[in-house]
Input
Amino acid sequence: MTDSEPKPAENPSETPVSAAPPDAASAAPVVPNTEAPASTDSATAVEPSDATPTARPGIHWGTGRRKAAVARVRLLPGSGLMLVNGREAEKFFTEPQDQRDVYAPLELTGVRRHWDVKVNVHGGGHSGQAGAIRLGVARALLKAYSQFETTLRDAGYLTRDARRVERKKPGQRKARRRFQFSKR
Output
């Protein structure tokens, strides 16, 4: 035995005072400390060590809409799992951009590993659904952490994207595309 190795306890009843029960880590999620974020720069993510926000306990709801898609988001204390219509987000969204969109508010604030997200989404296509989920997650995060409002707003995650598909006009092939014109 070397000097750097700790000596085992000679008496089996002697246990270290700092040892926590094995189920203490799984009993409650770890939430960062109670100070406000040091920087609200939207270009960089707020690290949990830099920002020490307090979360309101409980389940937080957020509704997001984009094009024809509507997403109802529940934010629960957990370990970072995201379920979209009962499936993992990585399996529900096949495009990398859509996968980045749904996790973007959690990554920006640095609290992704502290929350489980359950989403019910319907309507629209995959891109619209990803945008709706991003807005719903950001709104739910705002209810959990009110100090993240400027960070989320500066990144554009709290603004609903109101763009819609332009309607087709009569006498044209599409919204702006016209039929081919022949002079002779």
The mean pLDDT is 81. The chain is about 25% helix and 15% strand.
